[in-house]
Predict the structure of Two-component response regulator protein.
Amino acid sequence: MPRVILVDDEPPARRGLTRMLSAFEDIEIIGEAGSVDQARALIASLQPDAVFLDIELTSGKGFDIVRDLSTETAVIVVTAYSLYAIDAFDVAALDFLVKPVEPERLETAINRLRERLAQQTYATSPGPRTGQPARILLKSMMSSVMVSIDTITLLQAEADFTRVHLDNNQTYLAGGLLGKFEADLPSPPFCRLSRSLIVNLDQIGSVEWESGGRSNVRFASSDHTIPLGRSATKRLRQLLGAPAS
């Protein structure tokens, strides 16, 4: 049963979303918050599966909360401002709902949440696991292609899809959430650095550690460079055993 928290500084908005979510018998609302601080406290204590998150809060921006979330916690943005769609994409939000929320769109978001949780359950379920594949199938709406996992440099979440980068500078927009690929790929060398990014450590050529705790990663077999934020840089330092700045 998906356990969710609602974050919105307007009580009528929370009540309205509560009524809409009551149509889904498997959704359990375990808490509500009206501010950034309240949301952080609730999330830390209750560890929800998902957060329905408004962006314009009187105490700050809802995106301030996302940085503290575990990668296992899904974010469903619920806002009156469509201009935040790009920002939601950047934090790998599971879905982006515009107020007033349409019942059909809410159902789509719930179905995505169910799929995500099912994938996480499969990835962490006990029992014998077969060996990791040397090749992986990337499916898109137009085609399917088999690639060697050794040629993958990084994977990035793009809504319901995953952008797979190869060492020859080709990219594929493959169907499936990033978590599905995380379960299918060997770790190491594939390691998740953030909610939206998995890198192949064996493909990293060099890292430029910048001031402010950020970095730029360059891959050995391609000309692709990717900037990392503070939390992803911290995780990469730990994985590479690099001293803290």
User: Anything to note?
Assistant: The CA atoms of residues 8 and 131 lie 45 Å apart.
